[in-house]
Amino acid sequence: METNAPKRRDNKKSLRVKVISLGNAEVGKSCIIKRYCEKRFVPKYLATIGIDYGVTKVQVRDREIKVNIFDMAGHPFFYEVRNEFYKDSQGVLLVYDVGLRESFDALDSWLGEMKQEMGSQANMDSIVFVVCANKVDLTKRRVVDEGEGRLWAESRGFHYFETSAQSGEGINEMFQAFFSSITDMCENGGKRPATEVSVGFTKEQADTIRRIRNSKDSWDMLGVKPGATREEVNKAYRKLAVLLHPDKCVAPGSEDAFKAVVNARTSLLKNIK
Ligand code: GTP
Ligand code: MG
């Protein structure tokens, strides 16, 4: 099977790896990297034009890791420039702004773009992903909470960190976990260690909780058409109840989602003859 195994240098203990940053424009990708590499924050927005490239050396246990960082531009305009840089990555920083829901919703399309560009080489199990919920310092404008972000990340076997490039919160911890996981993966023959993906709940459960949270009304929440019959409502309810019952589902947010589904069913049945 094909992996994205990194290039080993002569010294057995040193590794060379490639990481990339992905996410909508202005979410803070460049600032996160700058905060880690240069220990500073730039408040003025300087859009990345195409790609920024940098190298840093880190120590993980007894290994020296040479990290090649490709910081991608998030603006759609740069798609043509980005697309050839996806290949051969061992790590991906997926960044969104906790104050902009569309930047969180866009994570799926960023993964989609990456898969498409990697083509037959798309072996996502050989890549370590870290989701950065960035700009957590701006608490008043926050719209995507921790539970929602964590759920999206962990249900896919990705790390999740709350970060602020402005204050530095979470940045070092995030990079340490990122590089340490990449090293583990390389030592594991290019396969992401299995422990990271065993989170105790399924992607279906996680996606359903997310769908419920974002639903616009009770019909939408149960996944039935407005005007559905009692029977259809009950059938949809039973399916969701089995999937999300707190005795069976340990995904974060399942209890609230389950309660919301119970309430939605009650209110719909009240109005159906
Ligand atoms: P593109 O290169 O266009 O894809 O954007 P980017 O994701 O690299 O964003 P960049 O790092 O340039 O940051 C965008 C803006 O957000 C800048 O004005 C930063 O100062 C600001 N910013 C980045 N991170 C944070 C953060 O954690 N908190 C706050 N308050 N502002 C941030
Ligand atoms: Mg940038």
Polypeptide structure, described:
- Helix 7 crosses helix 10 and helix 9 runs antiparallel to helix 10.
- The model has no long low-confidence stretch (mean pLDDT 90).
- The protein folds into two domains: 174 residues, Rossmann fold (3-Layer(aba) Sandwich), CATH 3.40.50.300; 69 residues, Helix Hairpins, CATH 1.10.287.
- The protein is elongated.
- Strand 3 and strand 4 form a beta hairpin.
- The longest helix is centred in the last third of the chain and has 18 residues.
- The termini are far apart.
- The chain contains ten helices and seven strands.
- By secondary structure, it is α/β, with parallel strands linked by helices.
- Strands 1, 2, 3, 4, 5, 6 and 7 form a seven-stranded mixed beta sheet that branches.
- Bound molecules: guanosine-5'-triphosphate and magnesium ion (MG).
- The site of guanosine-5'-triphosphate (GTP) has 25 residues, from helix 1.
Going by helix content, strand content and strand pairing, the class is alpha/beta
* Ligands and ions found: guanosine-5'-triphosphate, magnesium ion
Please provide the count of β strands.
7
Q: Helicity range of the residues?
A: 25-40%
At CATH level 3, the topology of the largest domain is Rossmann fold
Beta-strand content: 15-25%
User: Mean of the pLDDT scores?
Assistant: 90
- Distance, first to last CA: 58 Å
Please tell me the total number of domains: 2
The H-and-E topology, N to C, reads as EEHEEHEHHEHEHHHHH
CATH structural architecture of the largest domain = 3-Layer(aba) Sandwich
